[in-house]
Amino acid sequence: MAKELKDFLYENFYHAPEVTRYNEQGKEVIARLFDYFYEEVQRLPEKYQDRLAAQEKHEVIKDYIAGMTDGFALEIYRTL
């Protein structure tokens, strides 16, 4: 029974075209945001800019993006 459920989920959910497309769009948004903030680090909020003295730039940017809601990330993405 567990194998049948697992097979069903992989076929109808995890690898469904809609889910795959959504995941690929999400990857694009995250990659574009990361590139943007890496090149325009002064656009980070001040509390993240303050962390740059103690942490690697890519770590600070990663943490900032990871803390975004989907809606906020998309809002910024659409303005780029």
What's this entry about, in short?
This protein has helices spanning 2-14, 17-39, 46-50, 57-66, 70-79. With 80 residues, it is mainly alpha-helical.
Explained architecture:
With 80 residues, the chain is mainly alpha-helical. It is 76% helix and 0% strand. It has 5 helices and no strands. Helix 2 crosses helix 4. The chain is elongated. The N and C termini lie far apart (48 Å). The mean pLDDT is 93.
Which structural class do the helices and strands define?
mainly alpha
Number of helices: 5
**Overall pLDDT score:** 93
Radius of gyration: 17 Å
Q: Share of helix among residues?
A: over 70%
Query: Termini separation (Å)?
Result: 48 Å
Strand count, sense and barrel status of the largest sheet are:
none
Q: N-to-C SSE series?
A: HHHHH
Strand content: under 5%
* Molecular shape: elongated
- The low-confidence runs, each spanning 5 or more residues with pLDDT under 50, are none
Instruction: Please count the beta strands (DSSP E, at least 2 residues each).
Output: 0
